[in-house]
Specification:
The chain is of the alpha/beta class. 34% of the residues lie in helices and 12% in strands. Helix 1 (40-53) packs parallel to helix 2 (71-80). The chain is globular, with a radius of gyration of 20 Å. Bound molecules: iron/sulfur cluster (SF4) and FE2/S2 (inorganic) cluster (FES).
């Protein structure tokens, strides 16, 4: 077995707590509790281990990472080790002073999510009254502090009609990058799939809009575009290949090859409290299971894209076909491809059901 290259980036899910309740959240349905979160000293050790392993970037995520009062200390730790630091936030708990402290700590970049442009509608989707207005304020503080800003806009059947306005908002807020990401069906997103699935006509219109805006806004705004797998002909290279470029660490310290990996029942995940990050990355059975190409079935084994998309997404193969070791059914060459298309067509043709909002078993506890 050859040794894997180091990961490019590690994503630290500092907490699963979040004041928003987005119905497409990729966190697991069983959210981890505050009492199970790693403490500051352990996160610091993990960041140092990531740097030693050779990772270049640390993404601070959640849940909502700003509920942790040690966020500045963790950013400073990563920046001090020469790592590129990115904060992935809903922004609603930020204030101007905190943005300033994060800049002082060495934060390099902010990714801020938005749910739409109409405040009432965006608040309905995110499940937090007043959330949209607070996000706009947060975006302005981030830009005023001189930090580069990426706006993340998860899109779906209930907000695609305002895509043009989302693009205009990104320009108005001074974002350098906008990620228009059709929601992915994992975690709460999978649970709410019928409420989120766009029609094929919506998708085509959105793609045209993005292509036109890319031309019109060249030099002003970079637009990344994530298309929905269910209408694709070839799958995405999920996580850049299992155990190749990225790893996620959950609030309690489980090390995962992707955010949805815990849905795969055959896998057991090691914790940073039990073993060093480098050892887990190199030889943990969960990382080895789908690393490279040797696990692949046909048609992937003999396909010339097998080292481009790495067989697509294991969690999607599981969700649709019942076996994570199958070819991703988003691939037109998969024998199960017709099933995913039929699902998309059937769900988008029906009236959208009510959202089943993300929730903890008990109400959110923000640190005092
Ligand atoms: Fe990718 Fe496998 Fe489809 Fe080839 S057959 S495009 S490797 S998912
Ligand atoms: Fe798990 Fe794609 S989300 S492999």
């Amino acid at each position: 077995m050859s040794e894997p290259d180091p990961p490019l980036a590690v994503l630290l899910e500092l907490t699963h707590r979040c004041p928003l309740r987005c119905p497409y959240c990729s966190n697991p349905l069983e959210l981890e509790r505050r009492g199970d979160e790693l403490d500051t000293a352990t996160w610091r050790r993990v960041i140092a281990e990531a740097a030693e392993l050779g990772a270049l970037q640390v993404h601070f995520s959640g849940g909502e990472p700003t509920v942790r009062h040690d966020l500045e200390a963790l950013v400073a730790c990563a920046a001090g080790l020469g790592l590129y630091t990115n904060l992935i936030t809903a922004g609603v708990l930020l204030d101007e002073a905190r943005v300033g402290r994060l800049v002082e700590a060495g934060l390099d970049h902010v990714q801020l999510s938005i749910q739409g442009v109409d405040a009432a509608e965006a608040d309905r989707i995110g499940g937090l009254k007043g959330g949209h207005a607070r996000k706009l304020e947060a975006a302005r503080w981030v830009r005023a502090a001189g930090l580069p800003l990426t706006l993340n806009a998860p899109v779906h059947r209930q907000n695609l009609e305002c895509l043009e306005d989302i693009i205009a908002l990104a320009v108005e807020l001074g974002a350098k990058r906008l990620e228009v990401a059709h929601v992915q069906y994992y975690g709460w997103g999978l649970k709410n799939r019928a409420a989120l699935m766009p029609t094929r006509a919506q998708l085509e219109r959105a793609t045209e809009l993005v292509e036109a805006a890319r031309v019109r806004l060249k030099g002003v705004l970079v637009i990344d575009y994530v298309v929905p797998d269910y209408y694709a002909q070839r799958p995405k290279s999920c996580m850049g290949g299992w155990g190749r470029m990225f790893l996620n660490i959950t609030p309690s310290g489980k090390v995962l090859p992707c955010h949805a990996a815990e849905t795969i029942p055959e896998l057991a995940f090691e914790r940073v409290t039990e073993r060093g990050l480098a050892e887990i990355w190199r030889d943990s059975p969960a990382f080895e299971r789908f690393r490279g190409t040797s696990w692949m079935p046909e048609p992937c084994t003999s396909c010339d894209r097998r080292e481009i998309d790495w067989g697509g997404c294991r969690c999607q193969a599981l969700a649709i076909t019942g076996d994570a070791a199958n070819t991703d059914p988003a691939c037109g060459l998969s024998p199960r491809h017709a099933e995913i298309l039929a699902l998309a067509d059937a769900e988008s043709a029906r009236a959208a059901p009510a959202f089943d909002y993300r929730r903890m078993a008990k109400p959110l506890a923000v640190e005092a």
